[in-house]
Specification:
Layout lengths: L6 H4 L2 H23 L6 H4 L4 H25 L2 H22 L6 H30 L1
Helix pairs in contact: 2-4, 4-5, 5-6
Length: 135
């Protein structure tokens, strides 16, 4: 967490998003133009529903980023990444079941190592909480 005396500690999460999201757009637009030049024709860009869909997706992404920043504030960056690792379980399972994706053994080992690390972190955090309540 940022110290309240720092500039980052004095701004709200929405102010942080209002500064980072435009920078992300400025960086991603030239990359998108280079990687997908055919997608940015006048015919494609003048579709009636395109602008509405862009606004809906942008609002959803801003909401998701805001929620992620709130979670990081409530938990910690490490705990958030632990939750993100655990969140991958249903995504992988859905890919295997619904799309018949193949997961090779090294991917399984790596994923297992991430889960093991998440469990070790959760146990260490619980032990730290228990130790701090005893003092």
């Amino acid at each position: 967490r940022s110290h309240p005396d720092t500039a980052l500690g004095r701004i709200s999460k929405l102010q942080l998003l209002s500064r980072t999201l435009p920078i992300t757009g400025v960086i991603c637009l030239p990359i998108a133009l280079c990687v997908e030049p055919g997608a940015y024709t006048v015919a494609n860009l003048s579709q009636p529903l395109l602008h509405l869909r862009i606004c809906i997706i942008a609002a959803a992404l801003a909401g998701m980023l805001y929620a992620e920043l709130k979670l990081v504030k409530l938990l910690s960056a490490v705990a958030f990444n632990v939750l993100a690792t655990i969140h991958q379980i249903p995504i992988v399972m859905a890919g295997v079941i619904l799309q018949h994706n193949h997961v090779d053994k090294f991917s399984t080992y790596g994923f297992g190592a991430c889960l093991l690390g998440a469990l070790v972190y959760a146990a260490a955090r619980q032990q730290d909480r228990h130790a701090s309540t005893e003092h």
